[in-house]
Design brief:
Layout: E1 2-3, E2 6-9, E3 15-26, E4 37-49, E5 54-67, E6 74-87, E7 92-106, E8 117-129, E9 133-146, E10 150-164, E11 170-180, E12 192-201
Antiparallel strand pairs: 1-3, 2-3, 3-4, 4-5, 5-6, 6-7, 7-8, 8-9, 9-10, 10-11, 11-12
């Protein structure tokens, strides 16, 4: 189950203030091989219109992961980031976010006072759309919860293209590369993953 409310207030035509939150809960039938977990997160964002085509953002993110098992592992993270969105044309849009994140992991039987560790985080996408192409390139590095009772940074790069040959045929290709950073207290099962797909619609 996932709940993600968002509230935006615009004091002027150039500025906007956004407060968003998220509650994610994951439950499994077989608790012997999977671990239930909850994730709480919040974001405060200030957006300022730099020009007719671009907007800058200042964000502060906070997040908490809680494993619902005997280890009671928690992963807390908080940090600022800067963002930029550019609508270069009616076909091309670019969005980029980059920042720093301090994270701390705790669990029963682990270190009593785990230190905060700083990591760089980012996300972004480039989208191009016209009558024939629908192309999206995206990337991200952010915390990812896992069903083995842990959470760690996951870096992803993906590409997706839909091409309209004519009124009846549309082709699609996609690919993604992911790489996980091992937790300091427990190891995620995922090291790296590559996926690819293709389709033809009539």
């Amino acid at each position: 189950f996932n709940i993600a409310p968002e509230f935006t207030f615009s004091p002027s035509t150039e500025d906007s203030l956004t407060l968003s939150g998220q509650y994610l809960t994951s439950r499994y039938e077989n608790n012997n091989s999977h671990t239930d977990y909850d994730v709480y997160s919040a974001r405060f964002s200030w957006g300022h219109r730099l020009s007719e085509a671009s907007t800058g953002f200042l964000n502060v993110d906070a997040r908490r992961y809680e494993a619902q098992d005997s280890t009671e592992e928690t992963v807390d993270s908080i940090g600022p980031s800067l963002g930029w969105r550019m609508v270069a044309s009616e076909h091309l849009t670019t969005t980029l976010y980059a920042g720093m994140e301090a994270s701390r992991q705790k669990r029963v039987g682990g270190a009593e006072n785990n230190k905060w560790v700083w990591n760089n985080v980012f996300s972004g996408s480039v989208s191009y759309k016209d009558e024939q192409h629908d192309l999206t390139l995206s990337m991200s590095r952010q915390q990812q919860p896992y069903s083995n009772g842990s959470s760690s940074l996951l870096t992803s790069f993906s590409l997706k293209e839909r091409y309209r040959f004519n009124e009846r045929f549309t082709g699609q290709v996609g690919g993604q590369y992911q790489r996980a950073k091992s937790s300091s207290l427990s190891s995620t099962n995922l090291k790296s993953r590559v996926t690819a797909d293709t389709a033809l619609d009539y």
